[in-house]
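Listing S7. Sequence submitted for prediction.
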Amino acid sequence: MQSDFVIIDLVCLLHLLYRMYHVCFECERTVAYGGRDAPKSFLSYGSEVSCNQRRRQTGAGSSQSLLCQSICFARTAMATSKLMRAIRVSEFGAPSVLKLCSDMPVPSPGQKEVLIRVHACGLNPVDTYIRSGSFPRKPSLPYTPGLDVSGVVESVGEGVHLLQAGDRVFTTSTVTGGYAEYTVASEDTVHKLPDSLDYKQGAAIGVPYFTAYRALVHKAHAKAGETVLIHGASGGVGIAACQIARAFGLKVLGTAGTSNGMKLVLNNGAHLAFNHREKDYLEKIKDATNGQGVNVIIEMLSNVNLSNDLQLLDFGGRVLIVGSRGPIEITPRDTMMKETSIIGVAMYNATERERSECAAALFAGMEAGWLKPVVGPHYPLEKVAQAHEDIINNSGASGKMVLII
C-alpha cells in the first residue's frame, strides 16, 4: 500500500512539472515555435501545448495518458541537464516584463539548425515594439527576444553541411531567441564572421546591414550618381546605409541629433551631415541639392518626418520606411506633383535569392574594408530593461546597441 502511494505521489509530481512546462513530448511541437517542430529535448517554459497525439490514442485525462506524459517529461528533463541564462517575456508590456531566468535548458538544434554559444546580441528598436505588443507580428508567450547574435557554433543538427562546431558566426534571425547564452538558428540565417571583426561588431551586422541593403538596393533601386538622404544616420541601420550607399557610388546626406552623431555620420560615408534638431535643417538640405531635392530617403522615424520628406524629394523620388512609432498625417497630393513613392521595408519579406545576394554584397564589403560596424552602448544581460529604455529614449544614437553575454 505504501509503495502504491509513493508511485501515485511520483506521478502527481511529474504531472505537476509537466503542467508547469507545458511541453508536448509525444509530438514534440510547441506554440512558441509557431507550429514548427521543436528541437529534440527543448523545454519551452509556459508554451500552452498539450500532447494531442497521445490524447487521441488514450483519451484526454486518462491515467495512461497522464503516466505517459509524466514519463516523457522525466526522460526529457534528464536528457537536457545543461542550463543557461536567458531573458524571458511572459506578457507584453513595459521593459520591466523582461525577466532574467538562470535555469533555462539549453536548446538542441533540429534538422538544418545550428546551436550557437552567444557572445553578443544586437538590440533593435523592433525588439521593443514586439515586447510592448504593438508590433503586428507577435510571438507566442513566453518567448526570448533577439534576432542578430554573434558567437561560436556549439553543435549542428542533421543536414547542416556549411558550418561546424568552432566556427565564428553571426545571424540575421534566431529560432529560440538571442537574449540568451545559447540560441538555435536556422542554417540559412547563420553566416561566418570574419576574423577582422570582433563579436560586438558581429552582433551589429545582421538586422542593420541586411535592412539597409534591402532598402537601398531591393526596394529603392538606388543607382550610382543619385543622392540619398539618411534620416537618423548615426544609429545601427543609418551607419550601415551610409557605408553601403557610399560604396555603391551615391551622394550621401545624413542627419543626426548631436554634434558627435554628425561626426560619426561623416566618418562612415556621408558627404554632408545635418542636425535634425535645428529648425532650418530642411532648408540646408534643399540648398545642398541646389533646390533640386534628393532621389532617395531612408526614413527611420516616419511618424515624425514623412510629411517633410515628401517636400525634399526630386521627381520620381522614393521614401523608404524603415521605422515608425505611430501615425502621421500627410497630403497625398504631395506625391502626385513629382510622382514620388512611399515604400515600406521589412527584412523578413526578403526571398532566399535576395538574402543570398545581400550576403554576397556585404561579405565583399567586409573583404574590401568598407563594411565596419560601429558599436555604441553595450549592456550586460542583467541590464536589458535599461537597454530597452535607452534605445527608445536616447538623446542621440551613436552606433549599434548590443548585449554582451
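Caption to Listing S7: primary sequence and predicted C-alpha cells for the chain studied. The longest helix spans residues 2-21. The chain has 13 helices and 15 strands.
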